[in-house]
Amino acid sequence: MSAMARKAARKTAGRSATAKRPGGKSSVKTKGAAKSKAKTRKPAVPKAKPKPGAKRGGAQILSDQKPPANPTLIEVTRGEMVESRHRVAVAVVDAQGKLVESWGDIERPIYGRSAVKPLQALPLLETGAADNFGLGEPEIALACASHNGEPLHTDRVRRWLARIGCEISDLECGAHLPLHEPTMLQLIANGGDLTAIYNNCSGKHSGFLTTARHEGEPTRGYVRYEHPVQQRVTRAMSEMTGLDLSRAPRGIDGCGIPVLGLPLRAMALGLARMADPRKLSADRANACKRILQSVMAWPMLVGGTGRFGSTLMATLKGRFLLKGGAEGVYAGILPSLGLGVAIKADDGAGRAAETAMAQTLRRLKLISAAETKMLADLLTPPVLNRALLEVGRIRSTGEGRF
């Protein structure tokens, strides 16, 4: 054996002698233990993990375990082919928690993102903050908004902040360019300052500041989970959804506030209780009614020009409250039916969530056949090329009778 081979053999033997078992003990015997009798040990039995939805101490355990594949409910055509497909889950629930219709996995936790803003706005009214500062329907609608940053939005938010003695710098949502392209281009052309007023969540954050002012709480850090403003939001959402959301998966939303994981079914229940608040306390029922009335009366403040929810609410006045969120989440509050709708597109595509909401509303007969034809470009949007020619459609697949 060559010197190099002997050296390699010694190195390999050294590694084997020091190899460890998972428990941390050597897998080979040392010289001193060579004569001792090996003891047999029972294999360790791993502790069973709780299943999603299991109970621990009276609270539901929310899990992010890999879910089964959701059905392909939305497709995108181009010419004679289907070019893309979206998997989507949908829950339609009444105020008693009865499941009216569903597609896909509605028990897996998702983040409701901005789609749950109507629920997050409840403390603004319940604390008396809205009335104390003389807020009307436009401000309540803005508290639920993911707005375009158009002048009709930012002018009102400026006046609102002045009313409560706050500055734009008090907003902790961060800044981004207006979502409305003409407004964005005008801001850039004018060399205007890019501030948090243009953030699509500046109305919601103005609502948080209003509540803090009313309650005599610090305004700095109002986005933190531990701040009383966010604790009130968590309690209100827990009561409406029937879950202890203090134990839910938690993250940070795009605008800086806590975002709480909850199943689509529970989210839809919270929305349904806003649609039919008869079994809620008088104060909460009144808050739900005012939020619904405000959003449906001022739909363009909730989104803005060209936005799916705003356009549909403005066209079909008083039928429903629609609110979208990032990552393919959409919420519907249907007061005439007493139902809540919660939608999540697996891939986070907003186009899939919007088209799924349109199809759900048609299935529930809240949009007639004649209106479907009239609103075809909104409900089943065309795919346009750079020359603005229609080359395809975004539509329901019909899978699972959807």
TrEMBL record:
Source organism superkingdom: Bacteria
Bilayer-spanning residue ranges: none
Signal peptide span: none
InterPro entries: Asparaginase_II
Coiled coil: none
Compositional bias per record (Basic residues), positions renumbered to this chain: 32-54
Region spans: Disordered: 1-71
Pfam family, one: Asparaginase_II
PANTHER family: L-ASPARAGINASE, PUTATIVE (AFU_ORTHOLOGUE AFUA_3G11890)-RELATED
Protein name: Asparaginase
